[in-house]
Amino acid sequence: MELTWHGHSTWYVTVGETTLLIDPFFDNPKTDLEPADVDTPEYVLLTHGHADHIAHAGEFSDATLVATPELTAYCQEEFGFEDAVGGMGMNLGGTVECGDAYVTMVRADHTNGIMTENDASGGMPAGFVVSDTKPTQVSDEESTAFYHAGDTSLMSEMREVVGPYLEPDAAAVPIGDHFTMGPWQAAVAVDWLDVDHAFPQHYDTFPPIEQDPEDFAREVKATGSDTEVHALEADEPFELEP
């Protein structure tokens, strides 16, 4: 599995021959790319409807959309998406097959209003676990899974469900504080998830969320976790092995 961070919460994920783009937002200071510079993915995954997560979704409307039914309907009307998983999107707890990948939608503790004239609802905010095998109760040491936490606060579901049952090998967690978890809560989340690799995201984009990722790395170490923290350079691929 190949993971490429494009700044903020935007990730390009390749599983086998399948490509997925999560939360496309390229107006951030970490990336030099424009949406036109990015290979069109087969799937676009949206965690929620805030502008800094869907701003450039319309640039990839030829892809199949993976989002809640409410956000799917909005994006179909606003951006011209024709295809969506299941024809209507998906919802929390569901797993859908996306080419060579399996995508499980999990909870995120956040808000999800779409600030338009009519203040549309995006349904529930979410995170995604993207894996190369279908999740079951039987642990599979050969599988590889990546958890994109979306915009969220610390929540016990990470410890009780996502970590032990979906078994991600790596997690991208927000560290910006103010709107999401800050470094110390994100570090607790990483400890609960028991992942091998952790990536800070959703930081340094706007003044309220300016953070030093080294603070996050120190907080992870302070939990006693042996998770390896990677403050990635944007647009550089990371190879995730099982």
TrEMBL record:
<feature type="region of interest" description="Disordered">
    <location>
        <begin position="223"/>
        <end position="242"/>
    </location>
</feature>
<dbReference type="InterPro" id="IPR050114">
    <property type="entry name" value="UPF0173_UPF0282_UlaG_hydrolase"/>
</dbReference>
<dbReference type="GO" id="GO:0016787">
    <property type="term" value="F:hydrolase activity"/>
</dbReference>
<comment type="similarity">
    <text>Belongs to the UPF0173 family.</text>
</comment>
<feature type="domain" description="Metallo-beta-lactamase">
    <location>
        <begin position="7"/>
        <end position="202"/>
    </location>
</feature>
<dbReference type="InterPro" id="IPR022877">
    <property type="entry name" value="UPF0173"/>
</dbReference>
<feature type="compositionally biased region" description="Basic and acidic residues">
    <location>
        <begin position="223"/>
        <end position="233"/>
    </location>
</feature>
<dbReference type="InterPro" id="IPR001279">
    <property type="entry name" value="Metallo-B-lactamas"/>
</dbReference>
<protein>
    <recommendedName>
        <fullName>UPF0173 metal-dependent hydrolase HYG81_03015</fullName>
    </recommendedName>
</protein>
<keyword id="KW-0378">Hydrolase</keyword>
<dbReference type="InterPro" id="IPR036866">
    <property type="entry name" value="RibonucZ/Hydroxyglut_hydro"/>
</dbReference>
<dbReference type="Pfam" id="PF12706">
    <property type="entry name" value="Lactamase_B_2"/>
</dbReference>
